[in-house]
Specification:
conserved putative lor/sdh protein from methanococcus maripaludis s2 fold, rod-shaped, Elongation Factor Tu (Ef-tu), domain 3, 8-stranded antiparallel beta sheet, single chain, 3 helices, alpha+beta, Helix Hairpins
Length: 378
Amino acid sequence: MKSSVPSVPTSTAQKRGFAFTALLWAIILTVWWWPDESRSKMGAEEKFLELSPADIVTVQSARFSNDIHVTGTIAPVRQTILNARVAGEIKAIGVREGQSVRAGQVLVTQDDRDLNARLQQAEASLLTARAEAALTQQNLERIKPLQQKEYASATELANAEKQVDIRNAQVKSAEVSVLQARQQLADMVVRAPFAGVISERLVDTGQSVAPNTPVLKIVDLSQVELVAQVAATEVTAIRVGQLLYFTADGYADKTFVGRITRINPVARGGSRRVDVYALVNNNLGLLRAGLFAKGEIRDDNAVAGVSVPFSSVQDNKGKSQVHVIRDNRLAAQEVILGRRDEAKGVVLVKGLQQGERVLLLPPLPNNEGRVVHIKGGR
Protein backbone atom coordinates (compact mmCIF):
# COMPACT_ATOMS: atom_id res chain seq x y z
CA MET A 1 0.00 0.00 0.00
CA LYS A 2 1.07 3.50 -0.75
CA SER A 3 1.76 5.76 2.20
CA SER A 4 -0.40 8.95 2.49
CA VAL A 5 1.62 12.21 2.19
CA PRO A 6 0.03 15.57 3.20
CA SER A 7 -0.42 17.99 0.39
CA VAL A 8 1.22 21.46 0.51
CA PRO A 9 -1.28 24.36 0.47
CA THR A 10 -1.35 26.41 -2.60
CA SER A 11 -0.80 30.16 -2.66
CA THR A 12 -4.55 30.84 -3.15
CA ALA A 13 -5.49 28.78 -0.13
CA GLN A 14 -3.04 30.74 2.03
CA LYS A 15 -4.60 34.03 1.01
CA ARG A 16 -8.06 32.78 1.89
CA GLY A 17 -6.84 31.72 5.32
CA PHE A 18 -5.35 35.11 6.06
CA ALA A 19 -8.56 36.88 4.97
CA PHE A 20 -10.69 34.68 7.19
CA THR A 21 -8.41 35.30 10.17
CA ALA A 22 -8.52 39.09 9.62
CA LEU A 23 -12.33 39.07 9.37
CA LEU A 24 -12.58 37.09 12.58
CA TRP A 25 -10.38 39.56 14.47
CA ALA A 26 -12.40 42.44 13.07
CA ILE A 27 -15.61 40.92 14.39
CA ILE A 28 -14.03 40.32 17.80
CA LEU A 29 -12.74 43.89 18.03
CA THR A 30 -16.07 45.30 16.93
CA VAL A 31 -17.97 43.30 19.53
CA TRP A 32 -15.46 44.32 22.22
CA TRP A 33 -15.50 48.05 21.36
CA TRP A 34 -19.23 48.57 20.65
CA PRO A 35 -20.61 48.01 24.18
CA ASP A 36 -18.10 50.50 25.61
CA GLU A 37 -19.08 53.15 23.05
CA SER A 38 -22.80 52.53 23.72
CA ARG A 39 -22.27 52.77 27.42
CA SER A 40 -20.25 55.96 26.96
CA LYS A 41 -22.95 57.48 24.78
CA MET A 42 -25.73 56.49 27.18
CA GLY A 43 -23.76 57.97 30.06
CA ALA A 44 -23.42 61.24 28.18
CA GLU A 45 -27.14 61.34 27.49
CA GLU A 46 -27.92 60.81 31.19
CA LYS A 47 -26.15 64.07 32.04
CA PHE A 48 -28.85 66.08 30.24
CA LEU A 49 -32.06 67.11 32.05
CA GLU A 50 -34.70 67.44 29.39
CA LEU A 51 -37.46 69.99 30.13
CA SER A 52 -40.35 71.47 28.22
CA PRO A 53 -41.04 75.25 28.08
CA ALA A 54 -44.06 74.63 30.32
CA ASP A 55 -41.69 73.49 33.10
CA ILE A 56 -39.97 76.89 33.22
CA VAL A 57 -41.09 80.36 34.27
CA THR A 58 -39.31 83.66 33.81
CA VAL A 59 -38.73 85.89 36.82
CA GLN A 60 -40.97 88.94 36.37
CA SER A 61 -40.98 92.41 37.86
CA ALA A 62 -44.04 92.89 40.06
CA ARG A 63 -45.86 95.48 42.16
CA PHE A 64 -47.68 94.13 45.18
CA SER A 65 -50.43 96.29 46.56
CA ASN A 66 -53.91 96.35 47.98
CA ASP A 67 -55.30 98.46 45.14
CA ILE A 68 -59.10 98.71 45.23
CA HIS A 69 -60.84 98.42 41.88
CA VAL A 70 -63.88 100.64 41.42
CA THR A 71 -66.50 101.66 38.87
CA GLY A 72 -68.53 104.82 38.82
CA THR A 73 -70.00 107.76 36.95
CA ILE A 74 -68.72 111.24 36.16
CA ALA A 75 -70.78 114.03 37.75
CA PRO A 76 -70.33 117.82 37.68
CA VAL A 77 -69.25 119.47 40.91
CA ARG A 78 -71.52 122.46 40.26
CA GLN A 79 -74.82 122.31 38.43
CA THR A 80 -78.11 124.09 38.87
CA ILE A 81 -81.57 124.61 37.44
CA LEU A 82 -82.39 128.25 36.65
CA ASN A 83 -86.00 129.28 37.33
CA ALA A 84 -88.14 132.20 36.24
CA ARG A 85 -88.54 134.46 39.28
CA VAL A 86 -91.73 136.21 38.19
CA ALA A 87 -94.73 135.38 36.05
CA GLY A 88 -94.66 136.50 32.47
CA GLU A 89 -94.07 135.64 28.85
CA ILE A 90 -90.64 134.46 27.66
CA LYS A 91 -89.38 137.24 25.40
CA ALA A 92 -86.00 135.81 24.34
CA ILE A 93 -83.66 132.88 25.06
CA GLY A 94 -80.10 133.65 24.04
CA VAL A 95 -78.52 130.20 24.45
CA ARG A 96 -78.94 126.58 23.44
CA GLU A 97 -77.70 123.21 24.77
CA GLY A 98 -73.93 122.77 24.68
CA GLN A 99 -73.21 126.49 24.59
CA SER A 100 -70.62 127.88 27.01
CA VAL A 101 -71.61 130.92 29.04
CA ARG A 102 -69.80 133.31 31.36
CA ALA A 103 -70.83 134.29 34.86
CA GLY A 104 -73.46 137.04 34.81
CA GLN A 105 -74.35 136.57 31.14
CA VAL A 106 -78.01 137.26 30.23
CA LEU A 107 -79.63 133.96 29.26
CA VAL A 108 -83.41 134.56 29.29
CA THR A 109 -85.54 137.72 29.24
CA GLN A 110 -89.28 138.06 29.88
CA ASP A 111 -91.76 140.59 28.54
CA ASP A 112 -91.34 143.54 30.90
CA ARG A 113 -93.86 146.07 29.53
CA ASP A 114 -96.28 145.70 32.44
CA LEU A 115 -93.53 145.95 35.00
CA ASN A 116 -92.06 149.00 33.32
CA ALA A 117 -95.46 150.69 33.61
CA ARG A 118 -95.67 149.72 37.27
CA LEU A 119 -92.20 151.09 37.88
CA GLN A 120 -93.09 154.40 36.26
CA GLN A 121 -96.25 154.61 38.35
CA ALA A 122 -94.31 153.82 41.53
CA GLU A 123 -91.69 156.44 40.72
CA ALA A 124 -94.44 159.04 40.10
CA SER A 125 -96.08 158.17 43.42
CA LEU A 126 -92.73 158.60 45.12
CA LEU A 127 -92.28 162.06 43.66
CA THR A 128 -95.76 163.05 44.85
CA ALA A 129 -95.12 161.69 48.32
CA ARG A 130 -91.85 163.57 48.61
CA ALA A 131 -93.49 166.82 47.49
CA GLU A 132 -96.29 166.46 50.02
CA ALA A 133 -93.79 165.60 52.74
CA ALA A 134 -91.84 168.74 51.91
CA LEU A 135 -94.99 170.90 52.21
CA THR A 136 -95.93 169.46 55.59
CA GLN A 137 -92.38 170.00 56.80
CA GLN A 138 -92.54 173.64 55.69
CA ASN A 139 -95.85 174.05 57.50
CA LEU A 140 -94.34 172.65 60.67
CA GLU A 141 -91.39 175.03 60.45
CA ARG A 142 -93.87 177.92 60.10
CA ILE A 143 -95.99 176.94 63.12
CA LYS A 144 -93.10 176.33 65.55
CA PRO A 145 -92.14 180.03 66.07
CA LEU A 146 -95.79 181.05 66.15
CA GLN A 147 -96.52 178.60 68.92
CA GLN A 148 -93.52 179.91 70.88
CA LYS A 149 -95.04 183.42 70.68
CA GLU A 150 -98.44 181.93 71.49
CA TYR A 151 -99.84 182.96 68.11
CA ALA A 152 -100.52 179.26 67.44
CA SER A 153 -101.89 176.70 69.82
CA ALA A 154 -100.15 173.56 70.98
CA THR A 155 -102.83 171.55 69.19
CA GLU A 156 -101.93 173.16 65.86
CA LEU A 157 -98.26 172.31 66.45
CA ALA A 158 -99.10 168.70 67.33
CA ASN A 159 -101.24 168.32 64.20
CA ALA A 160 -98.45 169.73 62.04
CA GLU A 161 -95.91 167.29 63.52
CA LYS A 162 -98.36 164.44 62.99
CA GLN A 163 -98.79 165.38 59.31
CA VAL A 164 -95.02 165.40 58.84
CA ASP A 165 -94.78 161.88 60.27
CA ILE A 166 -97.60 160.68 57.99
CA ARG A 167 -96.05 162.18 54.85
CA ASN A 168 -92.60 160.79 55.69
CA ALA A 169 -94.12 157.33 56.15
CA GLN A 170 -95.81 157.69 52.76
CA VAL A 171 -92.43 158.58 51.23
CA LYS A 172 -90.85 155.46 52.70
CA SER A 173 -93.73 153.32 51.42
CA ALA A 174 -93.38 154.83 47.96
CA GLU A 175 -89.62 154.18 48.02
CA VAL A 176 -90.25 150.53 48.88
CA SER A 177 -92.73 150.27 46.00
CA VAL A 178 -90.13 151.66 43.60
CA LEU A 179 -87.47 149.25 44.87
CA GLN A 180 -89.87 146.32 44.52
CA ALA A 181 -90.80 147.34 41.00
CA ARG A 182 -87.14 147.67 40.03
CA GLN A 183 -86.36 144.27 41.58
CA GLN A 184 -89.25 142.66 39.73
CA LEU A 185 -88.02 144.25 36.53
CA ALA A 186 -84.52 142.88 37.19
CA ASP A 187 -86.04 139.46 37.90
CA MET A 188 -87.44 139.42 34.39
CA VAL A 189 -83.85 138.67 33.29
CA VAL A 190 -82.25 135.26 34.03
CA ARG A 191 -78.45 135.41 34.27
CA ALA A 192 -75.79 132.71 34.53
CA PRO A 193 -74.77 132.29 38.20
CA PHE A 194 -71.35 130.92 37.18
CA ALA A 195 -69.34 130.12 34.07
CA GLY A 196 -70.42 126.82 32.59
CA VAL A 197 -72.25 125.02 29.80
CA ILE A 198 -75.98 124.89 29.11
CA SER A 199 -77.04 121.27 29.48
CA GLU A 200 -80.80 121.61 28.87
CA ARG A 201 -83.28 124.25 27.70
CA LEU A 202 -86.70 123.78 29.29
CA VAL A 203 -88.83 126.59 27.76
CA ASP A 204 -89.28 128.29 24.40
CA THR A 205 -89.76 131.88 23.29
CA GLY A 206 -93.35 133.06 23.66
CA GLN A 207 -94.17 130.60 26.43
CA SER A 208 -95.91 132.00 29.52
CA VAL A 209 -94.41 130.88 32.80
CA ALA A 210 -95.30 131.12 36.46
CA PRO A 211 -92.85 132.04 39.22
CA ASN A 212 -90.24 129.31 39.89
CA THR A 213 -90.79 127.64 36.50
CA PRO A 214 -87.52 125.88 35.43
CA VAL A 215 -86.12 127.44 32.25
CA LEU A 216 -82.49 126.22 31.89
CA LYS A 217 -79.99 123.75 33.32
CA ILE A 218 -76.34 124.77 33.56
CA VAL A 219 -73.27 122.74 34.59
CA ASP A 220 -69.70 123.68 35.41
CA LEU A 221 -67.32 121.09 33.91
CA SER A 222 -64.02 122.74 34.86
CA GLN A 223 -64.02 120.34 37.78
CA VAL A 224 -65.92 117.06 37.93
CA GLU A 225 -66.33 114.25 40.41
CA LEU A 226 -66.02 110.53 39.90
CA VAL A 227 -68.72 109.02 42.07
CA ALA A 228 -67.30 105.52 42.59
CA GLN A 229 -69.00 102.57 44.26
CA VAL A 230 -66.82 100.60 46.69
CA ALA A 231 -67.68 97.39 48.52
CA ALA A 232 -68.42 98.01 52.17
CA THR A 233 -65.72 95.48 53.10
CA GLU A 234 -63.07 97.57 51.32
CA VAL A 235 -64.13 101.10 52.23
CA THR A 236 -62.34 100.92 55.59
CA ALA A 237 -59.02 100.89 53.70
CA ILE A 238 -59.83 104.17 51.90
CA ARG A 239 -59.09 107.62 53.25
CA VAL A 240 -59.54 111.19 52.07
CA GLY A 241 -56.56 112.37 50.02
CA GLN A 242 -55.81 109.09 48.23
CA LEU A 243 -55.45 109.15 44.46
CA LEU A 244 -57.85 107.36 42.13
CA TYR A 245 -56.65 106.45 38.62
CA PHE A 246 -59.33 105.72 36.04
CA THR A 247 -60.37 105.56 32.40
CA ALA A 248 -63.68 106.75 31.01
CA ASP A 249 -65.96 105.98 28.08
CA GLY A 250 -64.34 107.21 24.87
CA TYR A 251 -60.89 107.53 26.46
CA ALA A 252 -59.76 103.95 26.97
CA ASP A 253 -56.10 104.86 26.31
CA LYS A 254 -56.03 107.89 28.61
CA THR A 255 -55.68 107.71 32.37
CA PHE A 256 -57.27 110.41 34.48
CA VAL A 257 -56.39 111.13 38.09
CA GLY A 258 -58.69 112.24 40.88
CA ARG A 259 -58.20 112.85 44.58
CA ILE A 260 -60.70 111.46 47.08
CA THR A 261 -62.44 114.31 48.89
CA ARG A 262 -65.46 112.63 50.50
CA ILE A 263 -66.70 109.21 51.60
CA ASN A 264 -70.41 108.68 52.05
CA PRO A 265 -71.17 107.45 55.59
CA VAL A 266 -74.17 105.42 54.40
CA ALA A 267 -74.15 102.41 52.05
CA ARG A 268 -76.53 102.31 49.11
CA GLY A 269 -79.72 100.49 49.96
CA GLY A 270 -79.60 96.81 49.02
CA SER A 271 -76.19 96.99 47.33
CA ARG A 272 -73.83 97.09 50.34
CA ARG A 273 -71.68 99.52 48.39
CA VAL A 274 -70.52 102.94 49.51
CA ASP A 275 -70.13 106.03 47.31
CA VAL A 276 -66.65 107.54 47.27
CA TYR A 277 -66.15 110.95 45.65
CA ALA A 278 -62.93 111.88 43.82
CA LEU A 279 -62.36 115.44 42.56
CA VAL A 280 -60.93 115.61 39.02
CA ASN A 281 -59.43 118.65 37.28
CA ASN A 282 -61.16 118.88 33.90
CA ASN A 283 -59.76 122.10 32.45
CA LEU A 284 -59.51 120.51 28.99
CA GLY A 285 -63.19 119.60 29.13
CA LEU A 286 -62.63 115.99 28.05
CA LEU A 287 -64.85 114.44 30.71
CA ARG A 288 -68.61 114.82 30.41
CA ALA A 289 -71.26 114.34 33.03
CA GLY A 290 -72.76 110.85 32.97
CA LEU A 291 -69.75 109.02 31.47
CA PHE A 292 -69.03 105.56 32.90
CA ALA A 293 -65.58 105.14 34.43
CA LYS A 294 -63.54 102.35 35.95
CA GLY A 295 -60.27 102.49 37.82
CA GLU A 296 -58.42 101.79 41.01
CA ILE A 297 -57.57 103.48 44.27
CA ARG A 298 -53.83 103.01 44.62
CA ASP A 299 -52.29 101.52 47.74
CA ASP A 300 -49.77 103.94 49.28
CA ASN A 301 -47.91 101.00 50.83
CA ALA A 302 -47.32 99.12 47.56
CA VAL A 303 -44.08 97.09 47.28
CA ALA A 304 -42.16 96.50 44.03
CA GLY A 305 -39.66 93.75 43.15
CA VAL A 306 -39.47 90.45 41.27
CA SER A 307 -41.79 87.51 41.75
CA VAL A 308 -42.06 83.77 41.15
CA PRO A 309 -45.00 81.36 41.48
CA PHE A 310 -45.67 79.77 44.85
CA SER A 311 -44.93 76.35 43.32
CA SER A 312 -41.35 77.32 42.42
CA VAL A 313 -40.33 77.80 46.05
CA GLN A 314 -39.13 74.86 48.16
CA ASP A 315 -38.09 74.61 51.78
CA ASN A 316 -34.53 73.45 52.32
CA LYS A 317 -33.71 72.96 55.99
CA GLY A 318 -35.73 75.99 57.02
CA LYS A 319 -34.57 78.18 54.16
CA SER A 320 -36.42 78.96 50.95
CA GLN A 321 -34.91 78.16 47.59
CA VAL A 322 -35.75 77.90 43.92
CA HIS A 323 -34.02 76.07 41.09
CA VAL A 324 -32.63 78.40 38.46
CA ILE A 325 -31.14 77.68 35.04
CA ARG A 326 -27.77 79.43 34.71
CA ASP A 327 -25.30 78.72 31.93
CA ASN A 328 -27.68 75.95 30.83
CA ARG A 329 -27.20 74.11 34.13
CA LEU A 330 -29.63 73.60 36.97
CA ALA A 331 -28.65 75.28 40.23
CA ALA A 332 -30.33 75.79 43.60
CA GLN A 333 -30.67 79.43 44.62
CA GLU A 334 -31.55 80.55 48.13
CA VAL A 335 -34.16 83.33 48.20
CA ILE A 336 -35.83 85.54 50.78
CA LEU A 337 -39.60 85.60 50.53
CA GLY A 338 -41.60 88.82 50.65
CA ARG A 339 -45.19 89.87 50.13
CA ARG A 340 -47.61 87.36 48.60
CA ASP A 341 -50.36 87.90 46.05
CA GLU A 342 -52.88 85.17 46.73
CA ALA A 343 -55.02 86.12 43.74
CA LYS A 344 -52.15 85.71 41.26
CA GLY A 345 -50.37 82.92 43.12
CA VAL A 346 -46.97 84.65 43.17
CA VAL A 347 -44.58 85.86 45.85
CA LEU A 348 -41.95 88.60 45.91
CA VAL A 349 -38.41 87.24 46.31
CA LYS A 350 -34.92 88.60 46.91
CA GLY A 351 -31.96 86.77 45.39
CA LEU A 352 -33.11 86.64 41.77
CA GLN A 353 -32.90 89.01 38.84
CA GLN A 354 -35.65 89.89 36.41
CA GLY A 355 -35.49 87.66 33.33
CA GLU A 356 -33.87 84.66 35.03
CA ARG A 357 -35.43 81.25 34.39
CA VAL A 358 -36.59 79.05 37.26
CA LEU A 359 -38.38 75.71 37.44
CA LEU A 360 -42.11 75.86 37.97
CA LEU A 361 -41.97 72.74 40.18
CA PRO A 362 -39.15 71.25 42.28
CA PRO A 363 -36.93 68.83 40.32
CA LEU A 364 -36.29 65.23 41.29
CA PRO A 365 -33.39 64.64 43.71
CA ASN A 366 -29.79 64.60 42.46
CA ASN A 367 -30.49 66.81 39.45
CA GLU A 368 -28.56 69.88 40.55
CA GLY A 369 -25.67 70.69 38.26
CA ARG A 370 -27.06 68.75 35.32
CA VAL A 371 -27.08 70.29 31.88
CA VAL A 372 -30.57 71.39 30.90
CA HIS A 373 -31.99 70.74 27.46
CA ILE A 374 -35.28 72.47 26.63
CA LYS A 375 -37.49 70.86 24.03
CA GLY A 376 -37.87 73.15 21.08
CA GLY A 377 -35.66 75.74 22.75
CA ARG A 378 -32.11 76.45 23.75
